[in-house]
């Protein structure tokens, strides 16, 4: 009879330990998801804050004035491993006329500055540039 009680107690302790470990893992996973969600929201805010700069970047190469509308693809926002935020978009509703930019932060003293760099698709480049004479 005592062996049965001892075995039951050991099984109960093992089950409790397994449940506690499972709850800890689940909590860690939920914390990671929440952290990732907040980080994504911050990146979206950065992109929205710099929409005008992104438009200026795209329009700066538009020698033929073909750019009528610029659409930013908010689902494409990603963190750049080298720092900054990467985002894609397209022009005039045509996804083949695409561009990609990186928004990076630089601090000059206490002042925060944003740098926009990136590239445009070859099809968009051909439409935007004047031919050589």
Automatic annotation (TrEMBL):
Domain of life: Bacteria
InterPro entries to which the protein is assigned, alphabetical: DUF1310
Gene3D superfamilies: folded 79 residue fragment of lin0334 like domains
The name this protein goes by in its record: DUF1310 family protein
Record lineage: Bacteria, Bacillati, Bacillota, Bacilli, Lactobacillales
């Amino acid at each position: 009879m005592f062996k049965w009680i001892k075995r039951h107690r050991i099984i109960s302790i093992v089950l409790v330990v397994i449940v506690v470990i499972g709850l800890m893992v689940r909590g860690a996973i939920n914390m990671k998801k929440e952290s990732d969600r907040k980080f994504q929201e911050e990146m979206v805010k950065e992109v929205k804050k710099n929409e005008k700069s992104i438009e200026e970047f795209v329009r700066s190469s538009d020698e033929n004035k073909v750019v009528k509308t610029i659409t930013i693809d908010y689902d494409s926002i990603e963190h750049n491993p080298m720092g900054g935020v990467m985002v894609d978009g397209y022009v005039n509703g045509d996804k083949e006329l695409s561009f990609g930019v990186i928004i990076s932060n630089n601090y000059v003293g206490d002042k925060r500055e944003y740098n926009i760099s990136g590239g445009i698709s070859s099809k968009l480049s051909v439409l935007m540039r004047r031919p050589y004479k």
